Amino acid sequence: MGSNMAEQHPVGFQWVLEAKERGAKFIHVDPRFTRTSAMADLHVPIRAGTDIAFLGGIVNYILEHDAWFEDYVRHYTNAPVIIKREFHDTEDQGSYADVPPDLRPAGLFSGWNPDDLAYNVDTWGYAGTSVELGAGKSEQQADVSGEQAHGAHGMELEHGEPPELDNTMRDHHCVLQLVRRHFARYTPEVVAGICGCSPDHLIAVAQALCENSGRERTSAIAYSVGWTHHTISVQNIRAASIVQLLLGNIGRPGGGLLALRGHANIQGSTDIPTLYNILPGYIPMPHPVSHPTLDHFVELNGPSTGAWGNLKSYMVSLMKAWWGEAATPENDFCFDHLPCINGDHSHYAMMMRALDGGLKGMFCVGQNPTVGSANTKLMRLALAKVDWLVIRDFQPTETATFWKDSPEHDSGEVRTEDIQTEVFFLPCAAHTEKDGCFTNTQRLLQWHEQACEPKDDCRSDLHWVYYLGKAIREKLRGSEDPADRAILELTWDYPVKGAHREPDAEAVLREINGTGPDGNLLASYEELKDDGSTTCGSWIHCGIYGDGVNKPARKRPRSEQNWIAQEWGWSWPKDVRILYNRASADPAGRPWSERKRYVWWDPDQGQWASLGDSPDFPGDKSPDFVPDSDAKALEAISGDKPFILHPDGRAWMYAPSGIVDGPLPTHYEPQESPFKNVLYRQQKNPTRQLFSRPENPYNPSGSDPGADVFPFVLSTYRLTEHHTAGGMSRSVPYLAELAPEMFCEVSPALAQERGLTHGDWATIVTARAAIEARVLVTQRIKPLTVHGRTTHLVGVPFHWGGVGIVTGDSGNELLSVALDNNAHIAEYKVATCDIRPGRRPRGRGRLELVEEYRRRAGIAS
Amino acid sequence: MTLDVRQWSATYGADSKPRMGFFTDTSICIGCKACEVACKEWNQIPTSIQGFTGNSYDNTIALGANTWRHVAFVEQRLPAGVEEGASPVEASARAQAINWGVQTYQEGDGLRWLMASDVCKHCTEAACLEVCPTGALFRTEFGTVVVQEDVCNGCGYCVAACPFGVLDQREDDGRVWKCTLCYDRLKDGLEPACAKACPTDSIQFGELAELRSRAERRLDQLQSAGQRRAQLYLADDENGVGGAGAFFLLLDDPEVYGLPPDPVDTTRDLGSIWGATAAAGAALALGLAAAVFGGRG
Amino acid sequence: MAVPQRLPPVVRQLASDRLGLARAAQTKRSRQLKARIVDADRVVQSICPYCAVGCGQRVYVKDERVIQIEGDPDSPVSRGRLCPKGAASEALVNSPKRESRVKYRRAGSSDWEYISLEQATDMIAERFIKSRRESWEQEDDEGHPLHRTLGIHFLGGATLDSEENYLIKKFFCAAGALSIENQARI
Fold it and tell me: Which domain holds residue B104?
């Protein structure tokens, strides 16, 4: 679901087909019939943005049919945990007097503050615990979302045990019963009405999952940006995790909830992030209130039980790697050198800041936001207000040339000479021209070796940032400004090699791995200390260079090892290939079944044994281990609790902390939807993040006046033949040839309704933009019946732009910036639009067309 | 004549190799076009951007001088119960399955999206080879049919002769270009580029005899899984081209994919063709006479 | 029995290939053909730069130039296979569209000009320092430390190596330029 695997991960898809040949059932739930659907045993089309309803329907089915895996659920999840009795679920009526009476429940959890558009989460926790937000706040607003959300990594628990448990799971306030009640109305009929599928579709999928789960069998759910590109993105994934936990499909071979990531190192750039809100290894960035001391930061951000119980060691080792000798116990290891976040400083927030004149400089390194980001016109208007812009790419992209060629030039809205942005284009090195690691979608780090030197001015990003850093340090040398100390004290001296004096990527990898007191390379994060005697650039990567071996560079042929192939590359943490794999054994440490044997307790050796994977559990902790009452960190996790990153060692069906929009997933309509929410009075995710400003108008939605001006569902996506914003595909002749022109996909019924001709042009309009595309009329796009009404989808690949071998209008021109507030990710996968035959007007006419639509929809210009 | 054609192997004496070929199993083709790209990369074929065709996801249109592998996309909807040979009970079960939304392999609610990678068939009786007046076309030691770029003079006889429309002249140089089954790679024991890249192993390369038996097994498997229309195309010698080095497993009739259902070596029946031509000529003459002399009756 | 290739074609044809359709028609070029990767100076193992499946690649280099990129059959992830993008990797690294020189556009200018890499690095460093100073925030209204600038934004692609990301995160954090983001947010 939410993934078009055959098209976006064709080579990974070989394993799906192989499983299918061996008898696995393959089901595709997706709004479009894609190349993935073509290979499926069953394709279920659902309306874009209704995945939680569908998944909630599966949860409901599993519970109604008693198909859940009771032993797994009781021991390994928080289903038996009692939640605070003051907690009110979305299903509870009557607590919100200001909402007009309606048959539907309000659809809000307890703690909602309509003034701040945020939840106070005091009531959400485990009974008997107290809550303190990571950033010391009781409400989860933009500055404390994501990793900063209250105890994103969990709450304080004595010796890792929730205070109140009901192992019969019958207590009214236990998680299992809460989940049951929460999804009680997600019946096949209701779900079918929302999603536009048939009730039998839902039942068929639920049955297939139940039949293929349990001791003897496992099922996997794969998703991709079809789930994350929503204002309910995190909750889509949460909903699937509830399904997988009820069925016992996590931590076991053939199971899992697999994020199919789209780019060579997108997993790696989250693990060792170029993200504003985390440090390497998912450590939250400090917040002002987490100061003044490191201890206070650790107290607010890491529960003392579970793997996060050693947060201080991870943090100190990181700061020792960065500031070396300058980091001492006396100065809290340079904790003050780290910048603090106190709001949303993510990409979209910064582009809004740019529009307001608050951004001076911007770097786009292998990224093309004037094609790839939502509302690309807004991106260009923002860039025009930046003083200087640095682009690093294979060739100048649309972002690099926004000042001389854009739709706004065509419409006369901007003139090149008025754009005062200085632009630097720096050519990059290709993957064959540098050493380094990519982390693939299964957390596997694989080394790519330099094949030859880049030519002329082409350089790696390692080279670029290293020499930029050196230049800045040189210019600041001798500065007395306290603000410059963090730069000047930074460890910034790497061995170089080759004609271009490239920094040695292996030296950087060794710094990431970390060293012990005698300078030896560490083997595991369990060796990290909080006294400054160890260094480690990313705790989850500790061991990647253990024994002095570049482990991602291990390439023992697959023919020489078993299917786990542990001597090929390296995966974090500790080279674990299946996360939480202790769950592949029962509480007593025996395999759930011989067929699904993977990791098990070997009583003779007193160790966890496996088919070839590293156990994701302390190696010698026996299944019957019970922690001392004052135990901390991993010592506080019982021998039968596999989910060691959580303070209770349990997987969370109910998320008592860490999520801004509720502990359980709830169906809300997208920001722009032709339908009203039939389940709740709350139409949309109440915590969604909006930027209401003239450059970012939203289409009226649901039953709002003017919603009928944009009657169709719009979804943007990409094709096998192209790569995201096109920088690595529209410039490649053989790829350009395969998908040469911008097009859109519509059903025959919509084509008839709007007079669209196959192969001819159509213009697609939203409150943001009008673009043109060639029309592909196809039966693969199916009109769906939602709440008794026919709804149409307009499918829009987004790749094209004004630069490259093949050019065309960009799909993302059409989108608004409306974000999930957990992840600050935009709703690319669903909006509303109109579509009309013919090419879009040229020049000023294009702008006038959009303005006419805005007027009709009642949107102020 | 036929016998001699099949004795290509002997001409290579000790250098001859087992006949090599492609088995393209379209039931697992995901239409990714890796074969098209890998082929172009290896053979350094010029691009020829054709624009948006509207032909599903196919924008390279057909095999040609610049497209030696071509992936066809066929969107088809089969009404319930139309499958040939389906009993009334089966047809009604299928209709019910569709109504319930419970679907079968690749068939959606009657909707199928067939994808198939086409290529030169490397026919046993290859008309192109036989009509080539310059010796540019020849049969290699692997039994494949290759155009030699250092000989071809662009006369185009082979273009008309090919029953599959595979051979094509390149616009800029006039010469004919087509799949060589990566003759250069084969010489060094390497797999052809398309088969090597294919993510799902839809394109399989190997000794023809082994591929044929593999294809038989696969067909049995699919048919017993309810793929009634699944069929092998050119997988034996009993066809108009005497068998092919590149053959296919299709999920529907060849014409659905744009393949000729009954291809014939255009040189096979030269004698009878001449006879037919003479007869046609006579008939034409008679007709003309009737028109001229009897028109005002 | 094989007929020696040095004989004239007509003799070869008469001897063993009377129809002249097989060996007799084979030219010297055809006879001597070989796969160009056989002549590669070296082959290095790499990973595909497109999606996150992480397919193994083998990169063939001759005369310090990439001449071919193919799937790595040793890879347990991909078993030697590649998708169209992966199969086009050679065309990516040798793309005719690739720009290899630094370009600079002055404020208000309608054209690019070429500058040296060293000059560009120096100019960017100057601007970085100036913008950082102008937008530096030492503490918030309540006196809590901020130690940052929100005047600089970094947006990275997700084809950067982990080592590259690490150095970028390290340097930008130390500089207080905390708004570094990447495709993972997109």
Answer: 2-266
User: Token pair for residue A414?
Assistant: 């901007």
Decide if B70 touches A, using CB distance below 8 A.
Answer: no
- Selected residues 2-41 of chain C with any CB under 8 Å from a CB in chain A: none
Half-sphere exposure of A650 (CA within 13 A, CB side): 26
Mean pLDDT of chain A: 94
Our CA-based measurement puts residue B90 at a distance from the nearest CA of chain C, in whole angstroms, of 38
* Residue B189, SS3 per DSSP: coil
Q: What is the per-residue pLDDT for C128?
A: 98
- Contact residues on chain C for A556, CB-CB shorter than 8 A: 74
Token output for A187? 């019946």
What is the rounded CA–CA span in Å between residue B86 and residue B91? 6
**B241-253 exposure pattern, b = at least 16 Cβ within 10 A, e = fewer:** bbbbbbbbbbbbe
| Closest chain B residue to the Cα of A197, Cα to Cα | B101
Q: Is B279 found in the same domain as B208? A: no
pLDDT tens for each residue of A459-517: 999 999 999 999 999 999 999 999 999 999 999 999 999 999 999 999 999 999 999 99
DSSP, residue by residue, chain C: -PPPTTS-HHHHHHHH-TT-SSGGG--HHHHH---GGGG-SEEEEEE-SSSTT--EEEEEEETTEEEEEEE-TT-TTTTT---HHHHTHHHHHT-TT---S-EEE-TT-SS-EE--HHHHHHHHHHHHHHHHHHTEEEE-TTS-EEEEESSEEEEE-S-S-HHHHHHHHHHHHHTTB--EEEGGG-
Residues near A598 by beta carbon (within 8 Å), at least 6 away in sequence? A252, A253, A578, A581, A584, A585, A591, A610, A611, A613
* Contact by Cβ (8 Å): B37, A720: no
Q: Are A127 and A82 in contact (CB under 8 A)?
A: yes
Measured CA distances, B2 to A354, A647, B17, C26 (Å): 76, 78, 20, 20
Alpha-helical runs (H) found in A665-789: 733-738, 748-754
CA distance A513 to A801: 41
Domain with C29 in it: 1-33
Q: Do C85 and C67 belong together in one domain? A: yes
Burial class of A19 by CB neighbour count within 10 A (0 to 12, 13 to 18, 19+)? middle
Q: Are residues B101 and B189 in the same domain?
A: yes
**8 Å CB contact of B100 and A204:** yes
Count of domains observed in chain C: 3
Query: How many cross-chain Cβ pairs, A to C, lie less than 8 Å apart?
Result: 484
Cβ contacts of B291 within 8 Å, gap of 6 or more: none
3-state secondary structure of A120: strand
Is the link from the previous residue into A517 a cis peptide, with omega within 30 of 0?
no
**Yes or no, beta carbons of C173 and A345 under 8 Å apart:** no
Which tokens belong to B27?
Answer: 């039931």
Flag whether the ipTM exceeds 0.90. Answer: yes
Task: Answer whether residue C6 shows pLDDT above 90.
Answer: no
For chain B, the domain total comes to: 2
- Alpha carbon A860 to chain centroid, angstroms: 33
Q: What is the pLDDT of residues B116-157, one digit of tens each?
A: 999 999 999 999 999 999 999 999 999 999 999 999 999 999
CA separation for the pair A464, A478 (Å, rounded) = 23
3 state SS for C37-74: HHHCCEEEEEECCCCCCCCEEEEEEECCEEEEEEECCC
Q: Which domains does chain A have, with CATH numbers?
A: 5-78+168-208+218-259 (3.40.228.10), 272-342+496-552 (no CATH), 347-484 (3.40.50.740), 689-857 (2.40.40.20)
- Which spans in A792-860 are helix H? 844-857
CB pairs under 8 A between A and B: 115
For residues A716 and A229, give the distance between their C-alpha atoms in angstroms, rounded to a whole number: 10
Q: Which of A590, A580, A14 is CA-nearest to residue A255?
A: A580
Q: How far apart are CA A695 and CA C87, in angstroms?
A: 40
Residues paired with A602 in a beta bridge: A607
